[in-house]
Structures are given as structure tokens and as C-alpha cells.
Design a protein that fits this description.
By secondary structure, the protein is an alpha/beta fold. It has helices at about 40-60, 60-80, 80-90, 95-120, 150-165, 180-190, 205-215, 230-240, 265-275, 290-305, 325-340, 380, 400-405, 420-430, 465-470; strands spanning about 1-5, 5-10, 10-15, 20-25, 30-35, 125, 130-140, 140-145, 170-175, 200, 220-225, 245-250, 255, 285-290, 345-350, 370, 390-395, 410, 415, 435-440, 455, 455-460, 470-480.
Length: about 475
């Protein structure tokens, strides 16, 4: 059985407590590795190592930092098959998805910020005849990065890469539910020659290890992706210490389909935006609003396609959905399907587990589920389920659909389908979301600001936004 280790001060190490937690393979429902049950003491050691490394790393020329991050990107690429297999086993997602999305994107994150830092420039403001200002952007010090289980290496590297590129040292915690690829990344960092203490990865439970990161007085910035309730707790802990915070939280994203859309394109992409990664992407559209003129036609075609999606074990090349991430998450999703029924919803397809045979009989498989007949204000339509469950709701006007779309506490992303350009702009401007896709979904340019409004978070990741977050601006004003 693989025993995962922490990565502290350049070395792989057991947790101070000597205790380990069980790591379960969701496709089989079996324990397959052990994870350090770290605590405050490991965070203390990791932070001390990061503080020791900071003076040299922060003064290392950007080009040298960039070269090391490029080397990490290359090693991710060279090990991509091994990493994809590990990600799929740890998370339950189809290996095809890990191969085509998760691992290439983890490589791209390092590649992107390794080059981005070479183009990052500071501003200058001239007051004619009076003075000139220039703004320095210095690394902050030690940054804490905490990430979730749905896109494990992808989201972990999305935080670590800009933090390191900007000259910070990092104490990072992957989700305890999916720690494997972060562990493999620590080995890659050692091989790439990342100096000791620059990146430290501590495994363990959120309330212990994550909480210790939020509480540590020498961790000056926290970049967190996860649930809104956890984000709130981190903000409460960190705010009195005036830490910089970037919080990427939950979503309940609307997918607005107008009658004048490209029907086939909208249908095909909506199947994907509903159920990719078993619906466990914060950007999945879980509330599908369809203009009444095409409601029945769209509903019937959608249900037909969804009911034919193959749910299977992750290595199956034909699997469109794999296992959901854990038993507790599986039960949570089923409880929401029960709630939808209680609230008067009609399950059009899915709504139940899938029983696979052989080695996979205890895995956590669910049929992709489509529900109609619910009020937009009911709990099923207001609360984040984060699984393969979507609702269909007809609408008659732009005003009505915007009111329903904006009625939730979240504001992460939205998708709009129409061939009418003016309407697309109008709705995009009025929908309450940090990210809007028109006639597409999950098309990502890493330079764009990424994040949500309302209870979906604070701050933005991506491009120079991330490099700004991980630096402290200092203005120098010189009298002419
Ligand atoms: P959680 O909030 O449960 O966990 C996220 C991370 O925080 C994990 O590493 C977790 O550790 C850790 N954590 C838990 N408790 C604490 C604490 N008290 N202090 C500090 N850290 C803690 O989210 P999930 O892992 O369940 O991820 C799903 C959520 O993430 C969904 O709500 C989803 O919408 C959101 N998400 C948002 C994205 C965005 O960009 N806005 C992108 C992807 C997901 P552990 O796992 O060990 O408990």
C-alpha cells in the first residue's frame, strides 16, 4: 500500500504525529493508500522552512525561477500517463478526462506562470512637472494554498504556480480526499531542483491542517478553493490578522438557452456542461433554463442523450461518467435527489445509483439525473449539489429568466445560448456571475480573470490578477 509523505524543507517526511488516514479509491470503495494525518506541528515546520527559503527565493532572478517552473512543467508532461492514472484512481474520474484535461492543464499552469512572470511589469504614473510614481510589486512572503478534490492537480497547481513565480514560498494543502497527485508533484519538484523550503506540501484533514494554515501568523496570504462554508471559516480566522485572501467558492450556475440558439451545439455542449467530471466542476451548469418555444423539443433530446451516457469504471475507454469522489458525497447527492422528489420534482432520467460488477461493485456510481417541475426558489434549485444532477425550467422572457438565474446566493459562472448578438451582450451584462460563456462552455484563456461574485468568492485568479494577488504593491513617489 502506498504511504503518502509530506514534502517539507525539500524532503519527503512522515507526519510528526506518526499517524495516517485511509485513502479510498472511489471506483472500488476500497482503501488503497495512506495519507499523513498531519497537524499544527507539521504546518509549523513547513512554515519555518518556507520562511528560511524566502530571502533567497524572493531575490532569485525571475528568469531563474521561471526556468525551474518550466522544468516542473516538462516533468509533468513526461510523467503525464502516470499522473493521469493516479488522478483517475484517486478521484474516480474517467482516465480519458484526466489525460485530456487535468494533467495537461496542470502542466499548462506551470508553463503559463513561468512565462507570465517574465512579462509582468509594474506601473508608473507621472504627475507632469511635479513628481513621478512607480509601483514595485514585491513577493508577499509565505503564502498558503488550499485546494479541493474535484480537479486535484489542476486546481492545486493553479495556485502554487503563480505564488512561486511571483517569488513567494508556499505552504500548501491538497484535499485529504485526493492527495495522490500532489504527492507525486512533490517528487517532481525535488527532481526539478526546486530549492528546499520553497514549496511545502502538508497532507491531512481540513479542520486540522487547513485551519492551522489559516491561523498561522507568518502565512501572509491565503488562496483557497472549496466550499462557501469553509471559505467563510477561513475568512473569519484570517481577517483579524489582515491576511490577503483569494476565495474561490461554490456555484449554482445557470445555463440559459434561448429559442434562437444553435440547437445542436447547445444540446451537445449542455450535456457536457452538466455532467463532465460527474458534475463535480464548480463551473458546471446545474440549472438549465430553456425558452418555452423549444422547451419540449430540447428536453426530450437532452433526456435522450443523457440516458445514453455510459457510467462505468474509470479505465473504461467508453466511460462518460466515472465514480463520484467519496461515499459521503455519493450519499449527499442521493439525498438531494430525494429532496427534489419531495419538493415535487419529476425525475426524467437517472435518479439512482449504478451497480457495477466485479472489482467495482462497491464503487460510488450514479446515473446522470435530469429533473423538471421544480420552482426556481426551492432548495434543490438554490443549494449547490456538486454532482450529476441538473434541473430543467422553462421561461418566457429575458426578464423572467434573469430574475430566476440571479435568485441564488452564488455568482460564479453562467452560460448563454443565442444567435442574437445584442441579446447575448444584454443578458451577459445583467447576469450575476464572474464568468460568462456565450455559445460555449469551459473555453479557458488563462490570461482572463477567474472567480465569482456574491457567495462564490472574493478576488480573482488567472493571468496578471494572480500575480497581483501574490505580490504587495509599494508606490515610490519622486519629486521632479
Ligand atoms: P471543502 O471546502 O470541503 O474543502 C476544500 C479544501 O479546504 C480541502 O483541502 C479541505 O480539506 C480544506 N478545508 C476543510 N476545512 C477547512 C478549514 N476549516 N480550514 C481550512 N481548510 C479547510 O470543499 P470540497 O473539497 O468539498 O470541494 C468542493 C467545493 O469546492 C464545492 O463547493 C465547489 O463549488 C468548490 N469549488 C470551487 C471552485 C471555484 O473556482 N470557485 C472550483 C472547484 C471547486 P479536506 O479535504 O481535508 O477536508
Amino acid at each position: 500500500m502506498i504511504e503518502i509523505q509530506n514534502y517539507i524543507d525539500g524532503e519527503l517526511a512522515a507526519p510528526v504525529s506518526g499517524n495516517y488516514l485511509e485513502n479510498i479509491e472511489p471506483a472500488k470503495g476500497e482503501v488503497y493508500s495512506k495519507i499523513p494525518d498531519s497537524d499544527k506541528r507539521d504546518i509549523e515546520n513547513a512554515t519555518a522552512a518556507a520562511l528560511r527559503a524566502f530571502p533567497v527565493w524572493s531575490k532569485t532572478p525571475a528568469k531563474e525561477r521561471s526556468n525551474i517552473l518550466m522544468r516542473i512543467a516538462e516533468l509533468i508532461d513526461q510523467n503525464s500517463e502516470m499522473l493521469a492514472a493516479a488522478e483517475s484512481r484517486d478521484n474516480g474520474k474517467p482516465i480519458k478526462l484526466a489525460r485530456s484535461v487535468d494533467i495537461p492543464r496542470a502542466r499548462d499552469n506551470f508553463h503559463f506562470f513561468a512565462t507570465g512572470i517574465l512579462h509582468f511589469a509594474s506601473e508608473a504614473h507621472e504627475m507632469e512637472g511635479v513628481a513621478i510614481n512607480y509601483t514595485r510589486r514585491q513577493p508577499i512572503g509565505v503564502a498558503g494554498c488550499i485546494s479541493p478534490w474535484n480537479l486535484p492537480l489542476y486546481l492545486f497547481t493553479w495556485k502554487i504556480a503563480p505564488a512561486l513565480a511571483a517569488g513567494n514560498c508556499v505552504v500548501a494543502k491538497p484535499s485529504e480526499v485526493t492527495p495522490m497527485t500532489a504527492y507525486l508533484l512533490s517528487k517532481i519538484c525535488i527532481e526539478a531542483g526546486l530549492p528546499a523550503g520553497v514549496l511545502n506540501i502538508v497532507h491531512g484533514l481540513g479542520p486540522k491542517v487547513g485551519q492551522a494554515i489559516s491561523e498561522h501568523p507568518h502565512i501572509k496570504a491565503i488562496s483557497f478553493t472549496g466550499g462557501t462554508a469553509t471559505g467563510k471559516r477561513i475568512a473569519q480566522t484570517a481577517a483579524p490578522m489582515f491576511k490577503k485572501l483569494s476565495l474561490e467558492l461554490g456555484g449554482k450556475n445557470p445555463n440559459i438557452i434561448f429559442a434562437d440558439c444553435d440547437f445542436e451545439e447547445a444540446l451537445k455542449t449542455t450535456v457536457r456542461s452538466s455532467f463532465a467530471n460527474q458534475g463535480q466542476i464548480c463551473l458546471c451548469g446545474s440549472r438549465i433554463f430553456i425558452e418555452r418555444a423549444i422547451y419540449e423539443k430540447f428536453r426530450d433530446a437532452f433526456v435522450d442523450r443523457v440516458s445514453r451516457l455510459k457510467v462505468s469504471y474509470p479505465e473504461d475507454p467508453d466511460a462518460k461518467l466515472g465514480a463520484v469522489v467519496s461515499k459521503s458525497h455519493f450519499e449527499k447527492i442521493l439525498s438531494y435527489i430525494d429532496l427534489a422528489r419531495e419538493e415535487g420534482g419529476h425525475v426524467l432520467t437517472g435518479g439512482e445509483p449504478v451497480q457495477l460488477g466485479g472489482d467495482y461493485e462497491h464503487g460510488y456510481y450514479l446515473r446522470p439525473t435530469v429533473i423538471e417541475g421544480l420552482a426556481h426558489s426551492c432548495r434543490t434549485n438554490q443549494e449547490e449539489i456538486f454532482g450529476p444532477v441538473v434541473t430543467l425550467t422553462p421561461f418566457d422572457s429575458e426578464e423572467e429568466v434573469l430574475a430566476m438565474a440571479n435568485s441564488v446566493e452564488y455568482g460564479l459562472s453562467a452560460t448563454i445560448w443565442t444567435e442574437n448578438l445584442r441579446k447575448a451582450h444584454r443578458v451577459a451584462h445583467k447576469v450575476e456571475a464572474g464568468i460568462v460563456w456565450v455559445n460555449c462552455w469551459l473555453v479557458r484563456d488563462l490570461r482572463t480573470p477567474f472567480g465569482g461574485m456574491k457567495n462564490s468568492g472574493v478576488g480573482r485568479e488567472g493571468g496578471f490578477e494572480a500575480l497581483r494577488f501574490f505580490t504587495e504593491p509599494k508606490n515610490v513617489c519622486i519629486k521632479l
